[in-house]
Design a protein that fits this description.
Blueprint (H helix, E strand, L loop, with lengths): L1 H27 L4 H5 L8 H11 L5 H13 L13 H36 L4 H15 L2 H15 L15 H27 L2 H8 L4 H12 L1 H18 L1 H6 L5 H11 L2 H29 L7
Helix pairs in contact: 1-14, 5-6, 5-8, 5-11, 5-13, 5-14, 6-8, 7-8, 8-11, 11-14, 13-14
Amino acid sequence: MAGFLIKRVLQAIFVVIAITLLVSFAIRLTGDPAMTMFQGGGSMTEDDLNRIRQALGVDKPFLTQYFLYMQGLLTFDFGRSFAGGASVSGLISQALGPTLILAFLSIIVSIIVSIPLGIKAATSRGKWSDQAIRIFSLIGLSFPNFWLATMLVLLFAITLGWLPPSGMGTWKSYIMPAFTMGVILTATNVRLVRTTMLETLSSQYVMVARAKGLSERKVLYKHALRNCAIPLITYFGIQFGGLLGGIVVIERVFNWPGLGTLAFDAVGARDYPVLQGVITVLSLLIVAINLVVDIAYGLVDPRIRTE
């Protein structure tokens, strides 16, 4: 197990270096930040621009800038925002919690709903309940998340007045954003659970468990579901990482103070340090989640540790 962990950690470190190098290079291609900060750059002298570049630290060669950026990354120091001079690390720290909370609640909602529905569809293959679950999951896949979010706001916030339309306040403010993402995720997860359960239920060990007289509930949830764990862990882990990167639309609709909103505002203001910091943190989180998924593989299936 130790060798397996070391191999996965080294792979994660390599991916982090590749991602940060690519992000740093891509940010530099967006233009001269000194010219961006001064909209009327025609009246600026070259000396003035050079002083601004020196103050921002962008006058150094790219590799030097990257090395300094990686030094700051080790201490979670991403520099200061071009707009206002606030600490980028402080801005990210404030926005990280709301994004993680929303993503976690969304995936929990999806797991709680999709696993029982997927099992029900698999055990009722070809029956009306199976057809109904598959139809509803297909309808869920057809809903754009921004459309569903807008409809929920119109219904529950504006028409009925039951929930706040935006912002992060009381527990009621979590319901619509988490439900919106949860519905979209559930539509995909139900089909995944159904497919994996159908393959598992036709296995010989399931037939043996039933022949021993075990209850159907124990056969499904203790034996069959456990053997479906690897593909489910894989997809749920990847899905959680994808949530972190694609949650920006939902955060904008509900005015959620997370990383997506922070990145969106940074793009509009051309605040490169903030944008670079957000992308880097999201990338690190996705790499960390994939590392946890790999470790979970090894715990669930010992055969993977030898790969």
